[in-house]
Amino acid sequence: MARPAQKVIITCAVTGAIHTPSMSPHLPLTPAQIAEQAIEAAQAGAAILHLHARDPADGRPSADPEVFAQFLPAIRAATDAVINITSGGSTKMTLAERLAPPLRFKPEMASLNMGSMNFSIHPAATRIKDWKYGWEQAYVEGTEDIIFRNTFRDIRHILQDLGEGCGTRFEFECYDVGHLYNLAHFVDQGLIKPPFFIQTIFGILGGIGPDPQNVTFMRETANRLFGADSYQWSVLGAGRHQMGLLTAAALQGAHVRVGLEDSLYLGRGQMARSNAEQVRKIRHLLEELGFEIATPAEARQMLALKGAAQVAF
């Protein structure tokens, strides 16, 4: 397949709410660690920084805007990367809790999970013998019996209050083919207008699997629903599927997302020491294939973002 003319946007998801401190000593937990790793990732080539927060005391996921306030200004001061604040938070949070940070800071972008789903990491608990903090084991094991909630009403609320109300555009996280149809519903309702950024996610237990055929299927489905010129397409491969799936997807025209939220490893048996390591690796792989990496300014243009001057931090 011919290489697309446009440059590839690298998104880096810096910490997330999936992995816990016992899973990697390199997972950023404190505001200072999150800021440092986000800045390094931007310097390595990430045009978009997808950000969650953690309780500085024990690393559990946090939706406290005051914690976000401890790292957002530092990141903005040090880099021109697009800052993307999660609206997903964690499966333990209410919708109001999840929306508190992006509604306060009015970022250029926010993530938006396009449906309710089983979202589980409970098998990981069997591989951990020593837990660093008391909350972790119950949190990981408990995902076997938790549904991440984003109903149609929830999504409409986010699109109206955060999108229309704050001028924030979205990273539409699609974990299965039904999520693409949910997205199409809101496009038909006039609540989402192109160009939109579709993040297709593969390899999460509860979502579509990481088979290369599924990547092609999701791409072809999106093209049927929206037309190839209406959206920018990105791919996330969870865990061990990260680098191989992203490289193959880029050959089909995809942008890519890496980061310690999505995978703790750099390669087989090799733990990533930072988010920047993953950014540098995927950048190297893409450049070896002849791709050019998008700058933050180019990403803003492709995604029709409002610009860093319009955020509230």
The rough form would be described as globular
What is the top-level CATH class? Alpha Beta
Strand order of the largest sheet: 1-2-5-6-9-10-11-12
Determine the CATH topology: TIM Barrel
Class computed from helices, strands and strand pairing: alpha/beta
Query: In percent, how helical is the residue content?
Result: 25-40%
- What's the CATH H-level superfamily name? Aldolase class I
Number of helices: 11
Proportion of residues in extended strands: 15-25%
Number of strands: 14
Q: What is Rg?
A: 18 Å
How many separate domains make up the residues? 1
**H/E series:** EHEEEHHEHEEHEHEHEHEHEEEHH
Distance between the termini: 42 Å
Look at the structure and give the mean pLDDT: 96
Main beta sheet: 8 strands, parallel, barrel
Poorly predicted parts: none
Per CATH, which architecture? Alpha-Beta Barrel
Q: How would you describe this structure to a colleague?
A:
- This is 3-keto-5-aminohexanoate cleavage protein.
- InterPro entries: Aldolase_TIM (IPR013785), BKACE (IPR008567).
- Keywords: Metal-binding, Transferase, Zinc.
- One of its GO terms (molecular function) is 3-keto-5-aminohexanoate cleavage activity.
- By secondary structure, the protein is an alpha/beta fold.
- The chain has a single domain (10-310), classed as Alpha-Beta Barrel (TIM Barrel), CATH 3.20.20.
- Helix content is 37%, strand content 17%.
- It is built from eleven helices and 14 strands.
- The strands form four sheets. Strands 1-2-5-6-9-10-11-12 form an eight-stranded parallel barrel, surrounded by eight helices.
